[in-house]
Amino acid sequence: xxxxxxxxxxxxxxxxxxxxxxxxxxxxxxxxxxxxxxxxxxxxxxxxxxxxxxxxxxxxxxxxxxxxxxxxxxxxxxxxxxxxxxxxxxxxxxxxxxxxxxxxxxxxxxxxxxxxxxxxxxxxxxxxxxxxxxxxxxxxxxxxxxxxxxxxxxxxxxxxxxxxxxxxxxxxxxxxxxxxxxxxxxxxxxxxxxxxxxxxxxxxxxxxxxxxxxxxxxxxxxxxxxxxxxxxxxxxxxxxxxxxxxxxxxxxxxxxxxxxxxxxxxxxxxxxxxxxxxxxxxxxxxxxxxxxxxxxxxxxxxxxxxxxxxxxxxxxxxxxxxxxxxxxxxxxxxxxxxxxxxxxxxxxxxxxxxxxxxxxxxxxxxxxxxxxxxxxxxxxxxxxxxxxxxxxxxxxxxxxxxxxxxxxxxxxxxxxxx
Length: 418
Fold this sequence. Notes:
Layout: H1 14-45, H2 50-82, H3 84-104, H4 108-121, H5 125-135, H6 141-169, H7 173-192, H8 207-210, H9 212-220, H10 223-239, H11 241-254, H12 258-287, H13 289-309, H14 313-316, H15 319-324, H16 329-338, H17 346-375, H18 385-404, H19 414-417
Helix pairs in contact: 1-2, 1-5, 1-6, 1-7, 2-3, 2-4, 2-17, 3-4, 3-7, 5-17, 6-12, 6-16, 9-17, 10-17, 10-18, 11-17, 12-13, 13-16, 13-18, 17-18
C-alpha cells in the first residue's frame, strides 16, 4: 500500500531544497523578462502590423500551453526512470539555449520554434515538484510546495518590470539576460544539486503511461487523485481570468493606466510571496491539509466575487489580500496527492498535473476574453461576468474537494494501479 506511513521520505537536504526554490524562481524570472518584449518583437518582425501581431502572439501562447500539455507527463516519467537531477539540469540547459535562439531569431519562424522549445523545457517545473516530494516528509510537503508558489511570485514581480527596463535599451536584451539566468542555473545545479530518487525506487519508462492520455489514466485509477486533479484543473482555468482579462477589465471599468496596473500587479505578486513563502506551513500545521485546501479555495472564490462586483478600483484592491490565501490551496492539495502515490510515481503525478495546467491554458484565455467581450456589448453591461464565471468554477471545485476528501480512502498499490 502507498499510504503516507508505509514509506518514509528521506530527510530534506537544505542545499537541494534551496536549489529547487532558486531554479523555479529563475525560470519564472526568465519567463517574466520576455513578457513585455515578446509581443512588440512579433510586431517588429511583421513590419508593425499590430492586428497580425496580436493574432500571432495569441498563437504563440496557445502553442506554449500545448507543449506543456504534451511534454510534462513525458518529462515526469523520464524523471521517474532516470532521476530528477538529469531532467532538471537538461531542461535548464535547453531553456538557456532556447532563449539564445529567440534572441537571434531573424524571423517569425525561428521565434515560433523558440516558443515551442520553451514550452517543452519549462515543463521541468513538474520535475521540481517531484523532487520536493522525494526529499520532504509528507507532513512538511505543503510548506515546501508553498516555496515554489513564492518563487512564482518573485518571478511575477521582478520579471516583467526588469524586462520592460531592459527592453527599453534593446528589445532583444531581455532574451539574452533570460538565457544567462537559465545557463547560470544549469551550472549552479550541476555543482550543487544531488539526486533525490534512489535507483531502487525508480520505475521503467513506458510510453503508454508517459503520454498525456496515459497520465490522465494514471490519475483516474484513484478516486481521490482524479477528484483533486479536477479541482486543480478548475482552479487553473479560473486563474486564467486574471492574466487574460484583468488588464482589459481594469482599464475599461476603472480607467487604470499602465502605472496603476503595474503597481496593482506588483501588489499581487508581493501578497503571493508572503502567503506562499511564510504562511502555508503554519496554516497547514494548524488546521490540516484538507481544511487548508478548502480554506484556500474559498478565498479564491471570494476574491473573484470582489473583482466582479467592485464599483471602484479601491474596492477591487481588497481582493488582493483575500485571494492571496488561495495560495494555500495548491500546496495543500499537492501534499494530499503525493501521499497517494509511490516514490517511483511522483514524477508521473507532477507531470500529469502540469499537463492539466497546459489544457487549462488552452481553455481559459478564450473562455474569459470572449465572455468579457460578450457582456460589455450585446448582452448588456456586465463587465464583471468573467470573474463570476471564475467564481462559479471555484464553487464547483470547493464542493468536489469537500466530497473527495470527506472520508478516508485507502491508497492503491502499484499492482492495483496497473
